[in-house]
Design a protein that fits this description.
The protein is mainly alpha-helical. The protein is built from five helices and three strands, in the order αβαααββα.
């Protein structure tokens, strides 16, 4: 029986994996949605959820005590190297997921990449459905009415041209 072999290595050294996860998690928290390979998305899910949980608990402590939890911010900042992203994590993301007991991310499979056939997926934050905003749809105009409007415009423009030609002569 094999023990203590959890996690994927991605044919990278430990420091390279750590940097990759740091960069991907920063991008996810910044844009709320990223597209990557399925294996990276599944591995990133575990990493990002721990960071969000740390921020969520710190925000809960801050609301009770009234003081900022600087230690939690520093711990998160060790992993996420963008100050603006850390700020949005503690001000926007953590309060929004405060009542959610985990499961902050969603992996949506997209299919295979054309170049190498790798499985592609979208990793997104569940409470931030950025691309799913309803778009306003223009009301449909009947095709016959549209054709009649076009012919009316062309007739009027021909009349104007004839009138201009007669006044010029």
């Amino acid at each position: 029986m094999i023990h203590n072999r959890a996690g994927r290595k991605f044919n990278r050294t430990r420091s390279h994996r750590k940097a990759m996860f740091s960069n991907l998690s920063t991008s996810l928290l910044k844009h709320k949605k990223i597209q990557t390979t399925l294996a990276k998305a599944k591995e990133m899910r575990m990493v990002v959820e721990k960071v969000i949980t740390r921020a969520k608990r710190a925000v809960a402590e801050e609301t009770v005590s009234g003081k900022l939890n600087i230690h939690a911010r520093r711990e998160v900042a060790r992993f996420i190297h963008d100050r603006e992203v850390v700020k949005t994590l503690f001000t926007e993301i953590a309060p929004k997921v405060a009542n959610r007991p985990g499961g902050y991310t969603r992996v949506v499979k997209l299919g295979q990449r054309l170049g190498d056939g790798a499985q592609i997926a979208i990793l997104e934050l569940v409470d931030f459905n950025v691309g799913q905003v309803e778009q306003k749809v223009a009301p449909k105009v009947d095709r016959k009415k549209r054709i009649n409007q076009k012919t009316q415009k062309t007739k009027e423009s021909k009349k104007d041209k004839v009138a201009e030609a007669t006044t010029a002569a």
